[in-house]
Amino acid sequence: MKAFSIKQALAAAIRAARAAGKVMRDNWRLPKRVKLTDAHDIKLELDVRCQKLIESVLRAAFPQIPLLGEEGDSGNVDAERRWVVDPIDGTVNYFFGLPHAAVSIALQARRPPSAARRHETLLGVIYDPFTDELWTATRGGKTKLDGRVVRVSTHSRLSEAVIAMGFSKSKENLEKSLPHLNRLARRAKKIRILGSAALELAYVASGRLDAYIERTINLWDVAAGGLMVECSGGEFYLKPLPDGRFRMCADNGKLRRKLQLGSLLR
User: Fold this and answer.
1) Domains of the chain
2) Where are the beta strands (DSSP E) in the chain?
3) In the prediction, which pLDDT does 116 show?
């Protein structure tokens, strides 16, 4: 079994993210084959292809580490370590020709059963193939954008803040979320609904956004970006739900109380 090295794991994740990003770029203007569609989401054959490519790169470096991904799991995902992968975060944007989508890869370690979080993210990589921007973070280190250290914004007033929100389309989630959208739209500088959780978190970590809120979200959307927010001086709140998804809020560490999200995150 190959010895584990966080430096080598980060290098492997970067190679995998760039490889999948190249596939996204190469297929950008080509017809997209839809694998599955419903009222509010689209799954592409390309999602599966990108995840398989990512897995092949990661397994070549660390064959013993399983993978938990949006397009299916490989191996025992409750192992000591696991990769958490979203091969194309923002598939709907990508399908409709909106260049706002990214590859997200995280490596997590299992924690003791008594811990608040069952797993802890050790490293994260987010790659935007359209801007050719690469965000990286390792626990205990700094978040970097293309090798340069970035930090969260310093805004402490809602009137200064640009806030991203995301919406699960269930009746309950809309009823909980829309009053907060209405309130924050009147108080914040701007509200943005952009469609890629990974990039929204990377933007909070870089100071481009001041906060990002989503009432129902999957782990693969936020595992890498949540670490980046923490490593850049922000706060990342993640509350597990019975169905395996999460409530989530990320901000620059100065806005959480002012956002008044108690009812939204319950």
Assistant:
1) 6-149 (3.30.540.10), 158-265 (3.40.190.80)
2) 34-37, 42-44, 67-69, 81-89, 102-110, 119-128, 133-138, 144-145, 148-149, 162-166, 190-192, 211-217, 235-240, 246-251
3) 67
Residues in the chain: 266
The answer to whether residues 168 and 216 touch, using CB atoms and an 8 Å cutoff, is: yes
pLDDT above 70 for 39:
no
Average pLDDT over residues 125-139: 98
Q: What is the pLDDT of residue 37?
A: 82
Coil, helix or strand for 86? strand
DSSP string, 209-266: -SEEEEEEE-HHHHHHHHHHHHHTT-EEEEEE-TTS-EEEEEE-SSSHHHH--HHHH-
The pLDDT assigned to 88 comes to 98
Alpha-carbon distance of 254 to 257, in angstroms, equals 8
**In this structure, are residues 82 and 119 in contact, taking their beta carbons and an 8 Å threshold?**
yes
Nearest by Cα to 70 from 86, 57, 48: 86
CA distance 49 to 44: 9
DSSP β-bridge partners for residue 165: 213
CB atoms within 10 A of CB 200: 32
Task: Decide: 47 and 88 in contact? Cβ < 8 Å.
Answer: yes
Give the mean pLDDT of the chain. Answer: 94
Q: What is the mean pLDDT of residues 63-89?
A: 96
Return the SS3 of 115: coil
- What digits encode the pLDDT tens for the residues 180-230? 999 999 999 999 999 999 999 999 999 999 999 999 999 999 999 999 999
